[in-house]
Fold this sequence. Notes:
Layout: E1 4-17, E2 21-30, E3 39-55, E4 58-72, E5 78-92, E6 102-116, E7 119-145, E8 148-174, E9 181-197, E10 200-215, E11 218-231, E12 238-256, E13 259-287, E14 291-320, E15 326-345, E16 348-363, E17 368-382, E18 391-406, E19 410-440, E20 448-451, H1 459-466, H2 470-476, E21 490-493
Antiparallel strand pairs: 1-7, 2-7, 3-4, 4-5, 6-7, 8-13, 9-10, 10-11, 12-13, 14-19, 15-16, 16-17, 18-19, 20-21
Amino acid sequence: MAVNTTFRTVKLAYECALDPKQIVMQCNLDTSAKGGVSQVCFVTASASVTKAQALSKQVKMSGKTGIKLLYLDEQGLLRSFDYISDFAEDLASDRIAADMPIRVTAHVTDTQTAVSGDEIKVQLVVTLQVYAIESRTDELLEHADGALELRAEVETQNFQGYLQEQVELSDEYETGVMVDEILLFDVRAVTTRSELRDDRWSAQGEAVADIIYRSEGEVYAQSMTIPFVRELDAPVNANVCLSCRVADCKLVLLGTEQNNVMRVEAVLQIEGAVFGTETMDLVQDIFCPTCNLDVHTSEQEYRIECCSEQIRERISATAPVSDEDLTKILALQTLSSQLTSVQVGDGEIVCEGVLCVGAICQAQSGTTVCNRIELPFSITGASALANLGDTATAECIALEVSGRIRRDREIEVGANLCIAICLQRQRAIRGIASVQEGDAIQLRDNGIVVYLPREGMTMWDVAKELAMPMDEIRRQNPDVSEPLSGQERLIVYKELSM
């Protein structure tokens, strides 16, 4: 054979998102033993998947949902309900194989409440998103003796495993009073950044603990922000993009009888896929001066995790909240911080969504008034790593929520939004899958060639026309640059065959 080829095995293993599945969960909360119900103030809800298994063409998953609800009883006293329920669901997909690596996320995307007598009916819509690892193996041309080669460095990214790390957090708050009742205790968390520092991957993030409590008939509120950093067991030459959920939390009352200290203890679960990167040198095109070649190429498109970013910005809004004159805000509670759109452009990321905040206020009459305030937002963050065409997944958390009563029965609410973003980029692995020799061609033995290239040609096109190595043509014509305009005059000296 005039051309001797060497192929190498190229394996791709990448994460893909299946079509999401929505489930509806309902519960009825009986308030008859707690003075009945006159108004639902607000409800916060969470969902998590605790177990997922891949079977043939099916995913079996189980998890739990949590509901924390504040309401006014028939006497106007603020009351609370905590409710936890389990779920088990199946998702059918032809793309699922038995025991393949998967991960599943769960998010509450809608909450509805209704009052019927002494019962509060709560309905949650939970979106389950399954991510599966798909793989493909190709044999691609690495080297061809006896032919001119156009080579290129190709970067691949392969799935190495799912990462799961736990972080234990704690913080304390001195109340200065004796706490009679905990009305609400809620912890949220987000991983804001994953970065490589000193040859070690680490995850950074923040947890927020919201507490509403009662002491001697008065309602108080406290919000605690707890930052965290966790070193990760991930290779240096890897890309990681992480999410975070609260696996467990509890509130412990300490201190003296007249000065209770609240101790928040939380266990966070950091999860994500780890992808290793490898760069290889592959042949993209070949040409043989002595024979025709039948060349078949291969191209495989896939998405890679390229980087993580974060955007921080303070937002605020003013909303009418009551038919009564308000005297003070007793508590503000983040109900949800949903992103409705994340758009990536060159050097920027645009995030749109709605922050919902529940406000518990005291009216001039002394009654407790509950209101729900929506803060729509559109935030543009600069990112040197973002490219047009990238896609993104993102999580949002509200920090330092504050408010004040304005004239005309309005409340102004502000919050610092922290949006954690994982960017994905479309990539393609291109190479030569097979080479077959054809008929012999007659050699051209011109000693000196003056070649006039056409507009749009590349040096590789010229090399194939002249049956010469591209590097040799460049060496003999150092002042010529690409792309060729069609006005160049290439002079090439060729060694005559004897």
